[in-house]
Specification:
The complex is a heterodimer of chains A (75) and B (196).
Chain A lengths: L2 H13 L20 H15 L5 H6 L3 H10 L1
Helix pairs in contact in A: 1-2, 1-4
Chain B lengths: L15 E2 L3 E5 L2 H12 L2 H7 L8 H11 L4 E8 L5 E10 L3 E8 L9 H16 L4 E7 L3 H9 L3 E12 L4 E11 H10 L3
Parallel strand pairs in B: 5-6
Antiparallel strand pairs in B: 1-2, 2-3, 3-4, 4-5, 6-8, 7-8
Classes of the chains: A mainly alpha (75), B alpha+beta (196).
Amino acid sequence: MTSLDLAREILSKATHQPLTAVPADASLHNFDQWDSIAHVHIMLDVEERLGRDLTPDEIFDLQSVDAIATLLGEA
Amino acid sequence: MTKWHRQKFPALNQTVSTERFDLVKMNGWQVFKAFRRTAIDDDLRGSVFRYMKRPSLIKTYAMMRKATNKSSHTFAIQIRETGELLGWHSFKLRPYKTAVLTIVLFNRERELSGVGVEVRRALIRHLARHAGVENFSGFTNVRNFSSVQLYQKLGFKRVGTHSHVDFDHETDRIMSSFYFELNGEALDRFVEENDT
C-alpha cells in the first residue's frame, strides 16, 4: 500500500466515507466531510501510525491527503 | 470621545442567524451559567481557560465580569428550531478595529457537524459589515485540533507560533499556541463570498 492509499484510508475512516468517495486531491477546503470531528480523528490516527506527537508545523500542514501521504512517506 | 472598542454599536446586540443556528447576545447571568458549564467540564476548560484548575464560583463570576464589559461580548449559539443551547461565541474588541474570537461548543455530535464554521462565518460577516471590524484574530493551543481546523477552514492566516508557553498536567505535554488573523483583502473576499 502506498502512502497516498494509506492517507486516503485514514480520511475514509475519519469521515465515515467509502474509500472510493475520497479523492486523491481531497483537502479540508474541498472535501465537505472533512469536518472538525474528522480532523481530530485524522490527527490522532497519524500520530498513532508515526508513534509520536506531531510537531506544531506538522499539525498546521496536515490539511490535505497529499500532506498526510508526504508525512507518512517520510516516516 | 469614546474609544472605538468601547462604542455601543447596535450590531453588537443584534441576533445573528444562519441556516441552522441563532447567535443571541447573552446577559451577565447567562454568561455566568455558560462559563460555569464550561469550567466544570474537564475537556472544555483546558481548551478555553488555559489549563487552570476548576475555578470557584467567585472566580467564574470574575471571568464573567471581564467577558461582559464594554468591549467584550458573548453570544449563545442556539439551534434555530428548538432554541437548544449548543455553546457560546465571544469576542473582545481591541483597538484598532480588531475582534479577538473565542468559541466553545458543549457537544460535538456528528449531526451538528459544521456548527463552528457556520456561526463564526456569519458573525465575522456581521461584525465586518455592521461594526466596522477590520481585523479578526484568535489563538489556540496547537493540540486543539478542532479549533485549528476551524481557523484553517475559514481562511485565517497563521501569523505566529508561541512555542512551549503552557503545560498540560493531565497529559504531561508542553503546549504551544498558534496565532491566526483574517484581515485586509482576505477579509474583503470573505465578506463578499459570504454575503448572502
